[in-house]
Amino acid sequence: xxxxxxxxxxxxxxxxxxxxxxxxxxxxxxxxxxxxxxxxxxxxxxxxxxxxxxxxxxxxxxxxxxxxxxxxxxxxxxxxxxxxxxxxxxxxxxxxxxxxxxxxxxxxxxxxxxxxxxxxxxxxxxxxxxxxxxxxxxxxxxxxxxxxxxxxxxxxxxxxxxxxxxxxxxxxxxxxxxxxxxxxxxxxxxxxxxxxxxxxxxxxxxxxxxxxxxxxxxxxxxxxxxxxxxxxxxxxxxxxxxxxxxxxxxxxxxxxxxxxxxxxxxxxxxxxxxxxxxxxxxxxxxxxxxxxxxxxxxxxxxxxxxxxxxxxxxxxxxxxxxxxxxxxxxxxxxxxxxxxxxxxxxxxxxxxxxxxxxxxxxxxxxxxxxxxxxxxxxxxxxxxxxxxxxxxxxxxxxxxxxxx
Length: 404
Ligand SMILES: Cc1cc2nc3c(=O)[nH]c(=O)nc-3n(C[C@H](O)[C@H](O)[C@H](O)COP(=O)(O)OP(=O)(O)OC[C@H]3O[C@@H](n4cnc5c(N)ncnc54)[C@H](O)[C@@H]3O)c2cc1C
Prior knowledge:
alpha/beta, FAD/NAD(P)-binding domain, D-Amino Acid Oxidase, Chain A, domain 2, 2 domains, seven-stranded mixed beta sheet, six-stranded mixed beta sheet, 37% helix, 25% strand
C-alpha cells in the first residue's frame, strides 16, 4: 500500500477535529465530515479534561484554547447526602491541572482551532457506507454525496457507524444501570471552593457539581435505573418531567435538593444511560480505522473519555507519520493504545459500580471510605501514572513501541 496523503475524518465532536489537526502536522491532508447539519453547540453537559488530555492537546496547539473555556479543578470533595464530609482529595500534583468544562465549549474551541489551522469541517454529512478499494476508500453520505481519500478515520462516537463497517460483528456499547442527566442552576452553593469538584453520595442517587465564576452551579446526576435508555429516548421525556423526578430522588440530599430547586426545566439535559465500550476486537480494517469513543469509550466516571480520545487522535497521526506502510502504521497505533485505554475503561467501570451500591454496601462505603481515600483510592496512587502519561510528538514512534 502507498503512503497516506489524504484522510476523511468522520465525526466532528472531540476526537475528529483533533485527529485532523494532528494529521495536518504529520503532512496528511484531512477533512472532517460531521453528521449534524450545523455545529451542535448547546449539546451535552459538563466533562473534565485530565492533565494527560490537556498535555496531548499541546501537540496540536490547542491546549491554551481549551484551558480558556475550562475551570481549573484542584481537588475533589466527597460528601454524603446529609452534608457530612467523607473526604477531600487533592488532585494528582501535576501540571497542567485538570479542567472542568461544558462539552459544547470544548467542541467549539476545538472546531475553531481546527478551522484556524486550515482544516475543512463539513456539516450535514452523515456517513452511511464506505468501502476500501485497492488505492483508496470511498465514503457515502446520507445526502447521496461521496468522498474519497487514502484513509477513513471513524471519530463518530460511541454508536459508531465506521465500527460496524470495519466489523459487522463488533460489540455494542455496554449499558450501565445509571441514568445520566445534567444542567445548570441559577444558584451558587454557599461557601463552595471555586477550584473543587464536589461528589455527593446521596441516599438514592449520586450527584456531582461545581460552582461557576458567574454564580451558577453546574451539576450532573446519576440515578440508578436498570432500563437501558438511549439519548433519543431520554429526550422524548420533557425536561420538566425529568426535573420533577430528580427533585423527588434528591429530596433528602444537600445541596442537590437546593441546586435542583433553582434549576429551570429548560436547563436540564437528559443524556440517557451511562455507557462504556467493551473491548473492540478490530480497531481497523484495510483503509478504515477508529479513534475516540468509537473504539474506547470509558464510562464518564473515569473522567478520561475526552482525554483518551485526544491522545488516540495524536498517536494515530504520529504512527501514520512514522510508518509510510499503512498496515504497519495501524498495527503500531493499536499496540500503543489498546493496553492503556482498556485499563482506563476497566477502572471507569469499577468507579461507576460504587455509584450503584445498595444501602448496605453504601453504609460500609461511608465507613471505609476515609481510610480508602488515604490508601488505595488516594489519587496519587490510583491516578498518578494515568495522568502523568505524556506523548512526545517529536520522538519517533519506534522508540515508544520498543518499551511495549
Ligand atoms: C452531542 C453530544 C453530547 C455529549 N455530551 C457529553 C456530556 O455532557 N458529558 C460527557 O462526559 N460526554 C459527553 N459526550 C461524549 C463525549 O464527547 C465523548 O465521550 C468524548 O469526548 C470522546 O469524543 P468523540 O469525539 O470520540 O465522540 P463524540 O463526542 O461522541 O463525537 C462524535 C461525533 O461524530 C458525529 N457522528 C456520529 N455518527 C456520525 C456519522 N455516521 N457520520 C458523521 N458524523 C457522525 C456525532 O454527531 C459527533 O459530533 C457527548 C457526545 C455528543 C455527541
